[in-house]
Every structure is written in C-alpha cells, then in structure tokens.
Amino acid sequence: MLLFYRYGFALVTGLLFGLGLAVAQMIDPAKVVNFLNVFFQWDPSLMLVMGGALAVTFVATPLVLKRDKPLVAERFSLPGKSKVDGKIIAGGVIFGVGWGLAGYCPGPLIVSLSFFNADILTVFAAYVVGTLVTKWLMARSA
Amino acid sequence: MEIINFTPVSALVGGLMIGLAATLLLLANGRIAGISGIFAGIVRPQAGDIGWRVCFILGLVGGGALYQCLSSDSSSLFVGVDHIEAVVSKPLLVLGGLLVGIGVTLGSGCTSGHGVCGLGRRSGRSLVATLSFMTAGVVTVTIVKAVFGG
C-alpha cells in the first residue's frame, strides 16, 4: 500500500515539475540561450524561473527537514557529500558549456521527449551516452 | 545589452510550480528533485530503487504531453509550442548533449539538483556548482554569439 503512495507521489510530483518546466518555457532552448546571452540580447525570464522555484524551496526545505521522516518513505535520502572538490567545479563547467550550446538541461530535455522530435531524441541520446560513459569511467577510477 | 522576449508571468508561475513539486517530492518521498540524479538511478539502477524514479520520469514526460494539450498561441501562460526549434546544428546538439551528460554526472547534479534543491538546502557545494555552470553557460553563449553572430 505504501508503495502505491510512493509511486503515486513520484508520478504526481513529476507531472507538476514537468508542467512547471513547460509553463516556464524552459523547453524552448532559445529562451535558455537568450538568458545566457547576457551581454548582447538578454531574456531575463530564466532568472525568474529559478527565483520562483527558490522562493519556495528556500523557505520550505528547512521546514520539511524538521520532520523525523517523509510522509511515505522510511527516511530522507539526502546527498552525503558536502565537500567542494574539483569534480563539482569541472562538472559544473562542462555541463554549463553543453547547456550553452544546446540550450537543454536534463529536466526540459526529458519533458521534451513528449514532442517525439528527432532533434530532441538526438540530444537525449547524446546525453545518455555522456552519462553512461562518465559513470563507467568514474567507477573504474574509484 | 537589450532586453528581449521577457515573459515574467509564465516564468514566475512555472518556477513556483517547480519549487512546489520539488518540495512535495522531498516531503512525501524524502528525495531530492535533481533530474540528472533521478534519471541516472535508472540507467545505472540499484535494486529496489527504480520504481519511484520511473514514475517521476514518466510524470515529467506526461507533464510535457499535458502542456501540449493545454497550450495555444493565444495563451500567455500556456504558450504555444509550434515556434520551438533547435538553436544550433545537429553536430552541436550532439556535442551539447554529450557535455551535459558528462558534466552533470561528474558534477553530481544539474540546474534542478544544485540550483533549485541544493540552494534550498543552503548547500555550499551546490552554490559552487551553480556558479560554475552559470558562468560557463554565459561564457559559452557569449563566445558563440560574438564569433558566429545571431
């Protein structure tokens, strides 16, 4: 029964998240690239997307984490690492370059799979390859 | 610098929805709504941990499908999608996708994981990550626009 609620909440939150990304027009790579085009022709919209999202999470997250446990799970699964290392920076930079080129980050990319579009599938396939290869290399060097 | 195509209402409403969704996932399932991380747990799964991830990802795609049903060219909140197209050629789309995959895996997160959830948790690590990808994004687009125009 608990599993039903776990899956249910995951599905509903995914739906709300995906709808939110679409409403915010983050599925339009032009809006992303124009946000990053600060020095020339700038579309500030993405700033308000992040701002709006952060307005909620910044306030709500500490309140939620005051609880002993989540509603339908055993415990909170939070990242264990807090150390800033080279991988965080290098990974961020590499991600940022790819983001600036294609205009897609993972969330909007997956939402856009609902378009059944060849360009989207191309970026998505490359994204999966990049993820798998990196995971494999990181596991090897661990 | 000139301002173009600023859509504050849909940006803010969408952002609030994203924040709400992330908060709900944390409250209900105790999970961080970091899309790259959630998806990574499907491509390299651990037993017993896949179900909720698949449901969330299906929800993401479903949200996109739902949006297309609701959107129209006359709406300012559910803006039409016909005008959406790739901003670069196919080879650059592939390169971009590859780099995004490499980067979020190496850096343990993306705009939702670090930017929305991580900053919400007051994570210094996420702040560094966010500043890194934002800076790299701006530099990349600046160089591309300066060299190729557009």
What layout of secondary structure does this protein have?
The complex is a heterodimer of chains A (142) and B (150).
Chain A lengths: L1 H22 L5 H8 L4 E2 L2 H20 L21 H17 L3 H6 L6 H24 L1
Helix pairs in contact in A: 2-4
Chain B lengths: L1 E2 L4 H22 L5 H9 L7 H20 L19 H17 L4 H10 L3 H25 L2
Helix pairs in contact in B: 2-3, 5-6
Mean pLDDT of chain B: 96
How far apart are the first and last residues' alpha carbons of chain A, in Å? 39 Å
- From the structure provided, what is the oligomeric state, counting identical versus distinct chains? heterodimer
How many helices of chain A does DSSP assign?
6
Could you state the order of secondary-structure elements of chain A as H and E? Answer: HHEHHHH
Structural class of chain A: mainly alpha
Distance between the termini of chain B: 14 Å
How much of the sequence lies in strands of chain A comes to under 5%
One letter per element, helices H and strands E, the order of chain B comes to EHHHHHH
Q: What pair of chains forms the biggest interface?
A: A-B, 118 and 116 residues
| Rg for CA atoms of chain B | 17 Å
Mean pLDDT of chain A: 96
What is the general shape of chain A?
A: globular
The number of helical segments of chain B is: 6
Describe this entry's structure for a reader.
The complex is a heterodimer of chains A (142) and B (150). Chain A has 6 helices and 1 strand. Chain A is mainly α and 142 residues long. Chain A starts with a helix and ends with a helix. Helices cover 68% and strands 1% of the residues of chain A. Chain B starts with a strand and ends with a helix. The relative contact order of chain B is 0.10. Chain B has 150 residues and is mainly α.
